[in-house]
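Lecture notes, structural biology module. Today: joint structure prediction for complexes of two components.
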Amino acid sequence: MSAHGKHVEDLTHEQTHLPKNSGWRKVPAIGAVLAVAGIGGAFAMKGGQEQQFYFSYVTSLLFWLAIALGGYFFTLVQHASRAGWSIVVRRLAENVMVTLPVLGILALPIFLGIHDLFHWSHEEVVAEDPMLSWKQPYLNTGDFITRGVVYITVWTVVAVLFYGWSLRQDRASDPAPLAHKMRGFAPLGLVLFGLSVTFAAIDWVMSLDPHWFSTIFGVYYFAGIVVSIHAFLAIVVVLLQRAGALRGVVTQEHYHDIGKMMFAFSVFWAYIAYSQYMLYWYASIPEETYWFAYRGHGDWLVLSLLLVFGRFAIPFVLFMSRRWKRRASSLVFWAVWMLVGQYLDMYWLVQPVLAHEHGSDQIHFGLFDVLTFVGIGGAFLAAFGWALGRAPLVPMRDPRLEESLNFENF
Amino acid sequence: MPKRKKIYGLLAEFRNPADLYHACEKVRDAGYAAWDAYTPFPVHGLEQAMGLRRSVVPWIVAIMGFSGAGLGFLMQWWMSAVDYPLIISAKPYNSYPAFVPVTFELGILLGSFGAVFGMFALNRLPQLYHSLFNSDRFAKVTDDGFFIAIEARDPNYDPARTRALLEEAGAVAVEEVED
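The predicted structure, tokenised, for the full assembly:
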């Protein structure tokens, strides 16, 4: 009932801070151990299997990077659109965003593995290949590394700036100037986001198979980013509430909105993926269709169909339900489902290239995939857990916090 | 001698959404079935206070949506593979990737028809006459009036006891409405 209003000054310390003895306090340490074990272990074992190591590494990196970039996107979109509903979960997204410097460092091995990952980085191959020669002004080692450093710098700078402003607002006597500042810079940050994500997807994923090209590729990765962040937020919110925080702050009205965004962007993903497929299928030009052709054989066909039904058709029919978005347990179930779909999607983008190079149409899910996933995930969660513990879980002085506390769907 | 007027039921006005909400809980707990609440805007949680069952609209949407998608696919298959087969850019007659957009759109179209017209049917709309418009007071329902109407056909209905219930529930005015 709307008659009982909730007020910011009534929020207790318990509601807005990570509990003292909760398991969440151990996440930074556990994450750090997993990071060292996972990444270190994979690095130590890569001898003789460099290619598989780097392909697994890129797959895992793309998965965790999508969540972190999602935090960036989510935070800035809420500022730019002056959103009210989302303020109670915005700090969580900011904590996700501030993992970007860590993931930026973890992206550097892409440059180390450039010769194992990217065909076009071999001068002698390019010299004999007219198409790659033609693409050389863009696809060459020097520019590739420069661009990569630019993406990582942009993500780091924007994330740290917005995170810092938001924390400063918590202690500000007048929160309005910082609110205006964040709103003012958010559109610029979003433009930088669009450009950096698009080019990063082209450089780091699409150019794995350098003969193929798709103008929609950046948007494809972006769709996964938005699904990932909402799924991750849903899981984190419910787990934090189990631990005793955010109760009565984040309500099923917020669950519902997070669920709606997750649903909408899984449909958006399908729309983008289908548009990409459809145009190549229709035109039927061999230099364009082969990319799908080798994903349509053997084990990869199974994975492709799994994506069509698992990532779109099944959630489209079932997760449309209002009830399933509003209940914590079912929301978390679908959030995990979406993240599994996102991982499979990244796997589907990256790994067939390697199999195809070796004339195989089989999936070899191996130790490198597990170790890099756990390792990069550990580093991500360590940074995220550290951020959770050092500041209130909601932006306490945001002018729209009260609106968000009392938010209701129509 | 004028015909004896038939009574539709009792109409009670409440001061604000909160009063209406709690009155709905009382009417619900008193076991009435043929009654409804009327407000100028959606009041959150009123469906729980009224004890309404879950709507069947989602099932109508599901049936219509699946039929739409199925028929959409069938139509395209029949047109391009059976009735008028043409080879288009060396593709098979039954080129299902090309059928996806129409299949999807027809699923959505019939699903939304199910939602809108199913809702109309369940609400018995459009209705050219409704007894409550016999009450002058009821005109406020589009502005600032919050009402409960309990119909005389309800088995629990009793002019005196029902009126007492509504007054006890906080009604500012209770009146009898002709059918």
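Point to remember: Chain B has a mean pLDDT of 93.
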